[in-house]
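Lab notebook, bench 4. The sequencing result for the construct came back, and we need a structural model before the next group meeting so we can plan mutations. Quick request posted to the team channel:

Model the 3D structure of this chain.
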Amino acid sequence: MKASEQSSVAPKHYSHLLAGVLNTICGISWTIAYVLYVFQARKDNSYGMPLTALIFNVTWEFVYTFIYRLNGIGRYVHFPWVFLDAFLVSETLKHAPKEWAETSPLVANHFSTFFSIASLLALTAQWTFAHQFSRTNASFWSAYVCQNILSWGSIWMLLARGNGSGHSMEIWWCRFIGSLAANLRYLYRVNVWPQKYGFLSGAFSVWILWMPCLADLLYPFVYQFVTENRETYFAVINNVTYVGAI
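Done. Here's the predicted structure in token form:
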């Protein structure tokens, strides 16, 4: 049997059930997080997902739902994200101009145009990346670029704004549980099915896989500090130039 054929056959002791359960936990947790993002945006009149993360997430979910469809249960548990994206984008387009009005009137006045151009660029990047590297787990690499941007961008967003508008600990819990479940699934796969998932043991793979979790562990402390110590926070950054709404 060729190496490529051997890697596509799961070992007898590999549990598709366990991998599927972890994937389902990931999908459901992130679905709830998306719903909570929408409700929090309407409650606070402000968006909570960093713009770059939103654009890359939306385009990733479009490409891997309709063009390069995922296999297994992931195809179904991730499917709702594409439709929830419409609500996330709608709330962002509604509230973002207000967030940018003070720091960049140009962006605020033409936000929909800038957002559309950025989305088109991200879509073509996701599409061409998947087309060229689809045989080397393109969905994994691009997904974890998105994940790093979202996790670290959320911390930066809190610090840049100086408040928790659009954010909540409930959203964080869902994000953290979903991301941890996904990482545990990959950790299980690389140990039980190294012929196919051995690339996950590489140094950069480990870095890109676990750095979002590091950010997620830091997030509650940043969120608490920003939301409960606003006067102290603003006293610290009083002489620092504000760097946008992210």
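Residues 68 and 134 are 8 Å apart (CA to CA).
Will bring this to the meeting.
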